[in-house]
Amino acid sequence: MNLKSTLRTAFAALVRNRARSLLTMLGVVIGVAAVIVTVAIGAGARASVQNQINSLGSNLIIVLPGSVTQSGARTGSGGASTLTPQDAIAIAALPDVSAVTPVVTVRTQVVGGGANWQTTISGVAPTYTYVRQWALASGTFFSDADVASAAKVCVLGQTVVTNLFGTTNPIGQTLLIKNVPFTIVGTLTARGQSSVGQDQDDTVIVPYSSALQRLTGGTFVSELMVSGDDQADTSGVQTEVTAALEQRHRITNGQDDFQVRNLADIASAASASATVMEYLLASVAAVSLVVGGIGIMNIMLVSVTERTREIGLRMAVGAPPYAILSQFLIESVGLSLIGGAIGVVVGFAGTYLVSMLANWPTVIAPEAVVIAVVFSALVGAFFGYYPALKASQLNPIDALRFE
Amino acid sequence: MSVPVVRTFGLCKDYAMGGQVVHAVANVSLTIESGEFVAVTGPSGSGKSTFMHIIGLLDAATSGRYELDGVEAGTLSRVAQASLRSRKLGFVFQAYNLLARTSAVENVELPLLYAGVPDADRRRRATAALGIVGLSDRLFSEPNQLSGGQQQRVAIARAIVNDPSLILADEPTGALDTKANDDVMALFRRLNVEKGITILLVTHDPGIAAHANRLISFRDGAVISDERSRKPDPAAPALPPTVSA
User: Fold this and answer.
1) Residue A223 within a domain
2) How far apart are alpha carbons A101 and A262 in whole angstroms?
3) What does pTM read for this prediction?
């Protein structure tokens, strides 16, 4: 008995019992589809976390002022005023740094378009759009000349635009920040929430010089945002920045009055937690695949019992034990492979539906599809083997006489 | 004289039943020559069916030897026995045992499938076998579309399709009405006379047994009589009486 006839015999048996074959397959269909959909959701979630992290800026390093001790009381991180725009200019000259912007943060009430709104004012350099990878929605960003002259110009985030101006065009209008009139020159594209839930669009951007001279009246900035070269190793850049600042601040004892934070670490932590979620989802789905396999074993056992006389007859007309074994094994592997194939189709459809209806990001992972299908075939072989072996070991006369 | 189809030497089959050993077949030694039409009779429980199952390699003897076509068969492996069944034996059962939802011709092809006969050959030989049993017009009918007599003829076609040395028929007419009964027995006779096929038929019905040339009676697992009919078939060679246990 060759492979072709065995295949034909097995599939003829599956077709003869159409309804039962379909019901048996259902378990594997659901299992495979579940694996594909959940992995797609998990991968989509991870991709969107990755996206948000990228949205913070490319190879971003943040320099914060350190803590200082005043009369025995220690301020927390960022409590000291140690960083200046000149530090930013010095860092920008480092070989592995592609851009730097100081950031001066003030939270205050602003008035414009006949309404008022409390928001965060960020005084930055024109390099800010590059460092944050943030594009303009309309108008222009201010220039180095505006920084040099401490010009009264500003760029608005979308939340501020909506709350003050609604649908009217804010470009060219005036915004009062601490009663200082600023001309609105541009608006930023909407960015949504940051990974910690902050509304990134609730902001007004002004030149840092304007912020220092007209809003805070100081010379120190809140933080420096440093963008490393794409090719440079972020921790290498971190070391360079630290060394440069230590030299500028004349620190030799290692007690830095600043901190350098690397967002890559935060990014990998967030990405790792998304991966854990992905595995969790996939393992739940894998359980349903195993349950589907047990369903196949049940049906194959029933099928062996129900067809004991058929097995006896096949043996009587000359079927050797391995022909019986391979017939039943092919039946169960065939069932689970066909079920797996249908499951892939259902999984793709389900993934599409989830993205459409729930508006979740999904990414179909080709390896998940391959693993699900291979696993379903293994499920068929594993759970089909016992009933098939049982069938092939029957004594012909016992099988024939089975009632 | 060619090698006998069947030769048994002190064949025994014991069952343990409720702590007691039952001798289903007890020390049976007999010979069946090529071309014989043998009826095995006896009351139920006499061991006639068990004897047939051992001859058919469907069951194993507890002790004794069994030669099929001169080859020691009783002690072969399961795979070798399957191969012998495939090449040398044909079975006809009381319940026909056809595959449901499978056409007559595909049912008949089944033994050839396991014998590794190529596709085209298989269809040709199965069609020819169905022609011999007079069912050329029902090749593609499924069992539930056939009468009992027709189903049994499909089963007989299946038994002869691989040109066996021996056909084993277990109560082949047990489920049939008188008319179908006569048809099936006439078919067996014709196969025996015209094709020279050796037939071993198990029945409890003396009327059916009368169609055979040789009558072996079983009781309590042993052969109690073994006689040639008064009208031996003219085509069959005259044979000396064989040993009986």
Assistant:
1) yes
2) 16
3) 0.66
From chain A, the residues in CB contact with B79 under 8 A are 320-322
Residue B97 near chain A (CB below 8 Å)? yes
Answer yes or no: is A333 within a domain: yes
Pair (A202, A319) in one structural domain:
no
Tell me how many domains chain A contains. Answer: 2
Do A157 and A277 sit in the same domain of this protein? no
Q: Which pLDDT belongs to residue B239?
A: 44
**Above pLDDT 90, what percent of chain B?**
68
Per the prediction, chain A carries an average pLDDT of: 84
Q: Are residues A246 and A308 in the same domain?
A: no
Domain assignment of residue A323, given as a range: 3-52+269-401
CB-based burial, A190-200: b 16+ in 10 Å, e otherwise:
ebeeeeeeebb
Chain B residues with beta carbon closer than 8 angstroms to that of A317: 85-86, 91, 110-111, 114, 158
B143 at A interface, C-beta within 8 A:
no
CATH no. for residue B177? 3.40.50.300
Residues of B in contact with A321 (CB under 8 A): 78-79, 82
Is B211 contained in some domain?
yes
Query: Are residues B225 and B242 in contact, defined by beta-carbon separation less than 8 angstroms?
Result: no
Task: Tell which residue, A122, A377, A77, A402, has the closest CA to residue A257.
Answer: A77
Handedness of CA A333, A338, A339, A340 (dihedral sign): positive
Range of the domain at B139: 34-58+76-228
Residues A292 and A251 in one domain: no
For residues B65 and B17, the answer to whether their CB atoms sit within 8 Å is no
Give residue-wise pLDDT tens across range A83-109: 888 888 888 888 888 889 999 998 899
ipTM above 0.90, yes or no: no
Domain assignment present for A305: yes
Question: Does A61 map to a domain?
Answer: no
- Number of domains chain B contains: 1
Return phi, psi of residue B89, to 5°. -120, 145
A16, A321, A397 member nearest B59 (Cβ): A397
In angstroms, the separation between the Cα of residue A11 and the nearest Cα of chain B is 13
Judging contacts by C-beta atoms under 8 Å, the chain A residues touching residue B91 are 316-317
Closest to B195 in 3D by CA, of B167, B155, B231: B167
Q: Give the domain-ending residue among A228, A256, A284.
A: A256
pLDDT digits (tens, 9 = 90+) for B76-117: 999 999 999 999 999 999 989 998 888 999 999 999 988 888
Nearest CA to B236 out of B201, B202, B195 is that of B195
The model's pLDDT over B192-241, given as tens digits with 9 standing for 90+, comes to 999 899 999 999 888 889 889 999 999 999 999 999 874 544 444 444 44
CA distance B62 to chain A (A): 15
Assigned domain for B113 exists: yes
Residue B181 has pLDDT above 70, yes or no: yes
**Does residue B12 fall inside a structural domain?**
no
Per cent of chain A over pLDDT 70 is 93
Which of B93, B101, B115 lies nearest to residue A318, judging by beta carbons? Answer: B115
Asked if A314's CB is within 8 angstroms of B110's CB, the reply is yes
